[in-house]
C-alpha cells in the first residue's frame, strides 16, 4: 500500500551510529579525492544532509551525518539521544530527477535527504491513519478525495449516531493529532494524504478543509488526538473538545431561497439592513439592480465570518442556475493554478520545488542530466532552478519583499487595482512566494532556441539544432560534446565563481535565479558557497495568491480573465479586470527607496545575459555540428537571448492589449451605459477610458530610464545598475550585437 511505504520513510528511526563506526570495506565505485563517502559525510554533519537511498543501501551510512555525538542532530541541533533518520519526501507520481542521483562507494544510488532528529509522534499518528484507512486499500484515493472535496465545498456535515464513515473518522483524528503536535495544513496533507493518493496537487483549498477537520465534533473522530509527543512541550497546542451541535444543519437539499434570501433579495430603500447584506456590499437606493458603488472583491477577501457562508451559498446558486441572486463577491478562479502551485511535502529545509518541470536542487560539482520537458520534440530536459522558502518560513526572511496585495480591499464602493505592500498582512490573504522572474521564461527560451533547426532568423542568422542546445549549451551528462563554462574565483570583475572544472550553461543560469538555498557545492571535502542565499532571496517576493497566478498566466502567454460568459454581474467583471491588470501593477511598483519589483526581474535577466556573454567568450565557434550561424561573423548566444527576451515581453504586451480592447467592448455590450450608476460609469471610464488602467497603453512592462544605446528597452540586458557578477561587481560587458 502506498501509504505504508511513505509513512515508513517519513517516520524512519534508527539507533545512534557515529560516522567513525562505519565498517571499512573495499570500494566498488571509487570516488576522487574531495568526494569520497567519508568526506561527504563529514561535510553533511554540518549541513544536516544525508544519504537517502533508493534501494536497500547502507543504513549506517545513511544516518551517519545525523547521528552520534559529532552528528548534526546533537552537535548542531542540540538534540541528545535523537532517533536520527534520513528523510526525503517525493510525492508519488513525481519522477525523481536522475541528475540529482549520486552513488556511494558501494555503487548504491542515493539522493541528498535531510536529517530528522525528532519524530516521536509520527508512529502513533501512522497507526491512526493505517487503522482508519488500511481496509480501503485500492479505493482509498477515491474515498478520501470525494470526502475532502465535499468538505471544501460545503464544510464538514455533522453525522449523528456515530455513523461517520471510517475514512472521515481517521482523517479527523489524524488532523487533530497533527495540529496538536504543532503541524500545519501543508504538513498534514503532504505527509500522508498526498502520497497515499499519488497526487502532487489538490483541487480544493487545503486550509479550508483542515479547518473543517479541526472543528469537527469529537464524535466524528476515531478517538482523542494522540497527545503531545514532542520533547519540547512548548511546541504543542491545546486541542479543545468540540461537542456535537445542539441543532442539525440544513439538509443538503436546501433550496437557494431557503436561507440566503435576506442576503440576495434586495430590500426596499426604506428598510435597509446592512447586517443582512453580502459581506462586501451595502444597500443603496441609487441602484436597485446592482450593488452600491463600484467595488469588487473575492469571497473571503475581507476575512469576515460571513465570507465562508457567502462562498457556500454562491456554489448553491451556481448549481441552481440562479446567477441573478449570486452574492456580489466572486469565487477565486482555479485557472493557472498548476503553473504556480507548490508541491506539498517534507522537502529539505522546508524548501519546495517550483513546479513539476522545475525541480529544486542544491547545485554541486557533479554531472547533471536534464530531463522533464521536450526540446526540439525529442530531448527530455529538466531545468533545475533551486529551492525557495514559502509560507511562514518565507515571512521570516528579511530579504524577501513582503506582503504585496491589492490596495484598500475593504472599500466596497471602489475597486482599486493598485498593488501595494500590505505591511500588516491584513485581511487573511494567502500569499505565494513569487519568483519575480518566472522560471517558465527560461524554459520558453530554451524551447524556442531548440524549435527550428537551421531556420532563418533576421537577415543573417540561422537557428541552432536542438541537439546542439542540449549537448553543448546545456551539456547533459551523457553528452559526447560537453562544454563547461569555466569562471572560478570571484575577485575579478565578471567572475561567476564556478567550480574549477567549470559549470554547464543551464546550471549556471540557475545561479542567479530567485532562490532561498543559495548555490553550494562540495570542493575538497568542504562546503563552498558560490552564491549566498541572501542574494537569491532579494529576487523573491510574497505576493497575494490570485495576483501570482494571474502573472503566471501572462508569462505563459495565456490571457487572464477571458471567460466573459461567467462575468454575469458588474462586480464579477470588475473583479476579473482587476485580476488581469494586477500583475502589471505589481511589476511596476517601487520597493523601498532604491529597489523596485522590476529590478528584481531585471537582475535575473541580466545575469542570464552575463552567462551568455561568458559562453560566447569561451566557446570556439565553428567546431561542432548544429551551431547557430551568422553570415556576418561569429554567432552569439547573447544576441539570441537579447532577440528572444525583447520579443517575448513585447508579445505579452500585445496579448494584454488585445485583451483590454475586447474586455471594453464586452463590458459595454453586457452592461449598457443607461443601466450603469454614476459610480459604475466612473469605474468604466477609469478602466477603459483615455489613460485607463485596462488599456493597451497601461498594460506594459517598465521602461527604465538612462539605458545606453543598444540596451533592451525593458532593461532585460545592458542595464548596468542591475548587472552583477558573483561578487556583486558590475562586469561592464556593454550591450550585445542585435539580430536584425
From TrEMBL:
Assigned keywords, A-Z: Signal
Name this polypeptide is given: Uncharacterized protein
Biased composition (Low complexity): 252-262, 272-292
Domain of life: Eukaryota
Leader peptide range in chain numbering: 1-19
Region entry Disordered, spans: 220-292
Amino acid at each position: 500500500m502506498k501509504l505504508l511505504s511513505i509513512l515508513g520513510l517519513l517516520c524512519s528511526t534508527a539507533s545512534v551510529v557515529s560516522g567513525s563506526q562505519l565498517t571499512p570495506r573495499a570500494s566498488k565505485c571509487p570516488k576522487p579525492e574531495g568526494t569520497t563517502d567519508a568526506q561527504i559525510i563529514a561535510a553533511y554533519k554540518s549541513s544536516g544532509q544525508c544519504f537517502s537511498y533508493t534501494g536497500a543501501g547502507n543504513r549506517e551510512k545513511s544516518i551517519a551525518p545525523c547521528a552520534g555525538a559529532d552528528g548534526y542532530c546533537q552537535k548542531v541541533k542540540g538534540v541528545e539521544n535523537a532517533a536520527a533518520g534520513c528523510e526525503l519526501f517525493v510525492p508519488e507520481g513525481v519522477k525523481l530527477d536522475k541528475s540529482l542521483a549520486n552513488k556511494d562507494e558501494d555503487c548504491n544510488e542515493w539522493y541528498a535527504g535531510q536529517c530528522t532528529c525528532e519524530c516521536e509522534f509520527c508512529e502513533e499518528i501512522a497507526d491512526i491513519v493505517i487503522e482508519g484507512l488500511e481496509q480501503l486499500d485500492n479505493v482509498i484515493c477515491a474515498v478520501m478525495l470525494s470526502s475532502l472535496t465535499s468538505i471544501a465545498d460545503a464544510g464538514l456535515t455533522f453525522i449523528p449516531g456515530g455513523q461517520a464513515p471510517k475514512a472521515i473518522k481517521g482523517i479527523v483524528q489524524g488532523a487533530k493529532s497533527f495540529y496538536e503536535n504543532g503541524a500545519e495544513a501543508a504538513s498534514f496533507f503532504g505527509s500522508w494524504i498526498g502520497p497515499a493518493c499519488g497526487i502532487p496537487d489538490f483541487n480544493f483549498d487545503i486550509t479550508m478543509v483542515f479547518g473543517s477537520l479541526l472543528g469537527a465534533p469529537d464524535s466524528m473522530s476515531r478517538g482523542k488526538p494522540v497527545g503531545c509527543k514532542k520533547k519540547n512541550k512548548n511546541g504543542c497546542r491545546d486541542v479543545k473538545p468540540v461537542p456535537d451541535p445542539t441543532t442539525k444543519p440544513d439538509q443538503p437539499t436546501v433550496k437557494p431561497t431557503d436561507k440566503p434570501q435576506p442576503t440576495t433579495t434586495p430590500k426596499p430603500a426604506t428598510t435597509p439592513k446592512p447586517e443582512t447584506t453580502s459581506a462586501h456590499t451595502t444597500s443603496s437606493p441609487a441602484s436597485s439592480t446592482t450593488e452600491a458603488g463600484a467595488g469588487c472583491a473575492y469571497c473571503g477577501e475581507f476575512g469576515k465570518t460571513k465570507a465562508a457562508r457567502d462562498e457556500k451559498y454562491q456554489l448553491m446558486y451556481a448549481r441552481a442556475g440562479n446567477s441573478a441572486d449570486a452574492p456580489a463577491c466572486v469565487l477565486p478562479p482555479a485557472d493557472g493554478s498548476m503553473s504556480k502551485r507548490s508541491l506539498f511535502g517534507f522537502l529539505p529545509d522546508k524548501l519546495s520545488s517550483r513546479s513539476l518541470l522545475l525541480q529544486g536542487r542544491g547545485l554541486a560539482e557533479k554531472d547533471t542530466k536534464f530531463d522533464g520537458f521536450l526540446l526540439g520534440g525529442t530531448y527530455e530536459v529538466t531545468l533545475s532552478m533551486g529551492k525557495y522558502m514559502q509560507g511562514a518560513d518565507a515571512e521570516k526572511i528579511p530579504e524577501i519583499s513582503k506582503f504585496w496585495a491589492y490596495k484598500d480591499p475593504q472599500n466596497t464602493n471602489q475597486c482599486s487595482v493598485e498593488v501595494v505592500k500590505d505591511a500588516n498582512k491584513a485581511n487573511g490573504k494567502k500569499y505565494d512566494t513569487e519568483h519575480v522572474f518566472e522560471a517558465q521564461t527560461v524554459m520558453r527560451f530554451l524551447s524556442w532556441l531548440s524549435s527550428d533547426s537551421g531556420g532563418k532568423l533576421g537577415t543573417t542568422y540561422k537557428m541552432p539544432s536542438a541537439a546542439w542546445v542540449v549537448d553543448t549549451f546545456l551539456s547533459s551528462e551523457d553528452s559526447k560534446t560537453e562544454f563547461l563554462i569555466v569562471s572560478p574565483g570571484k575577485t575579478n570583475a565578471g567572475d561567476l565563481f564556478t567550480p574549477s572544472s567549470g559549470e554547464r550553461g543551464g546550471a549556471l543560469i540557475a545561479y542567479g535565479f530567485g532562490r532561498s538555498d543559495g548555490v553550494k557545492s562540495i570542493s575538497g571535502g568542504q562546503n563552498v558557497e558560490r552564491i549566498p542565499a541572501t542574494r537569491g532571496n532579494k529576487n523573491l517576493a510574497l505576493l497575494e495568491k490570485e495576483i501570482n497566478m494571474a502573472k503566471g498566466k501572462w508569462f505563459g502567454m495565456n490571457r487572464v480573465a477571458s471567460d466573459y460568459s461567467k462575468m454575469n454581474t458588474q462586480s464579477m467583471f470588475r473583479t476579473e479586470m482587476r485580476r488581469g491588470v494586477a500583475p502589471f501593477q505589481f511589476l511596476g511598483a517601487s520597493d523601498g527607496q532604491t529597489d523596485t519589483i522590476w529590478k528584481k526581474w531585471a537582475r535575473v535577466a541580466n545575469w542570464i545575459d552575463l552567462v551568455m556573454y561568458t559562453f560566447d567568450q569561451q566557446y570556439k565557434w565553428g567546431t561542432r555540428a548544429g551551431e547557430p550561424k551568422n553570415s556576418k561573423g561569429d554567432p552569439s548566444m547573447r544576441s539570441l537571448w537579447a532577440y528572444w527576451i525583447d520579443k517575448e515581453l513585447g508579445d505579452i504586451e500585445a496579448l494584454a492589449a488585445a485583451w483590454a480592447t475586447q474586455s471594453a467592448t464586452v463590458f459595454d455590450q453586457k452592461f449598457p451605459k443607461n443601466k450603469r450608476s454614476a459610480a459604475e460609469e466612473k469605474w468604466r471610464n477609469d478602466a477603459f477610458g483615455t489613460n485607463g488602467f485596462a488599456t493597451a497603453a497601461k498594460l506594459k512592462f517598465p521602461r527604465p530610464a538612462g539605458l545606453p544605446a543598444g540596451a533592451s528597452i525593458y532593461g532585460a540586458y545592458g542595464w548596468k545598475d542591475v548587472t552583477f557578477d558573483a561578487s556583486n561587481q558590475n562586469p561592464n560587458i556593454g550591450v550585445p550585437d542585435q539580430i536584425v
